C-alpha cells in the first residue's frame, strides 16, 4: 500500500491531478445547482485536443436555458480551472 502523504509534504511533491480529475472536480462543484433544477451533468469524454464532451440529463434535456448554462456556466468554470481545455460541447443520447 502506498504511503499516504503527510500534512507536511510540499505540494510540488504530491502527485498532480490529471486533466480528467480536474474536470470532474469542477463538475462536482456545479452538479448541486444543476440537480436543484432537476437536471444533471455527466462527463463523456475529453479529446486530445482539449474538447470536453458532456451529457446533460433530466430537466436539462430540451431546456431552453441549457445552452446558456453550458457556455456561460459550465464551459467558463472548466476553462478557468483547467487551461488545457479548449471547448465544452454537449452531446445527446
Report what the structure shows:
The structure is a single chain. The chain is α+β, with helices and mostly antiparallel strands and 93 residues long. The protein has a domain at 38-93: Fe-S cluster assembly (FSCA) (GMP Synthetase, Chain A, domain 3, 2-Layer Sandwich), CATH 3.30.300.130. 37% of the residues lie in helices and 23% in strands. It has helices at residues 19-36, 66-81, and strands at 39-46, 51-58, 87-91. Strands 1-2-3 form a 3-stranded mixed beta sheet. Strand 2, helix 2 and strand 3 (87-91) form a beta-alpha-beta unit.
Concise account of the structure shown:
The protein is of the alpha+beta class.
Defining traits:
93 residues; alpha+beta; GMP Synthetase, Chain A, domain 3; 3 strands; 23% strand
Spans of at least 5 consecutive residues with low confidence: none
The number of helical elements comes to 2
Going across the biggest sheet, name each strand in turn: 1-2-3
CATH architecture field of the domain at 38-93: 2-Layer Sandwich
Which structural category do the helix and sheet elements fall into? Answer: alpha+beta
Helix/strand order: HEEHE
Number of strands: 3
Radius of gyration: 16 Å
Largest pleated sheet: 3 strands, mixed
Distance between the termini: 40 Å
Shape: globular
Beta-strand content estimate: 15-25%
Please write the CATH class name of the domain at 38-93: Alpha Beta
Mean of the pLDDT scores?
85
Helical residue percent? 25-40%
Q: Might you state the CATH topology name of the domain at 38-93?
A: GMP Synthetase, Chain A, domain 3
**The CATH superfamily title of the domain at 38-93:** Fe-S cluster assembly (FSCA)
Amino acid at each position: 500500500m502506498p504511503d499516504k502523504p503527510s500534512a507536511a509534504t510540499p505540494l510540488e511533491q504530491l502527485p498532480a491531478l490529471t486533466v480528467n480529475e480536474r474536470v470532474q472536480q469542477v463538475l462536482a462543484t456545479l452538479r448541486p445547482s444543476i440537480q436543484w433544477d432537476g437536471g444533471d451533468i455527466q462527463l463523456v469524454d475529453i479529446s486530445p485536443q482539449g474538447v470536453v464532451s458532456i451529457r446533460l440529463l433530466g430537466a436539462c434535456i430540451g431546456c431552453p436555458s441549457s445552452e446558456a448554462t453550458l457556455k456561460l456556466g459550465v464551459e467558463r468554470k472548466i476553462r478557468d480551472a483547467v487551461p488545457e481545455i479548449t471547448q465544452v460541447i454537449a452531446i445527446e443520447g
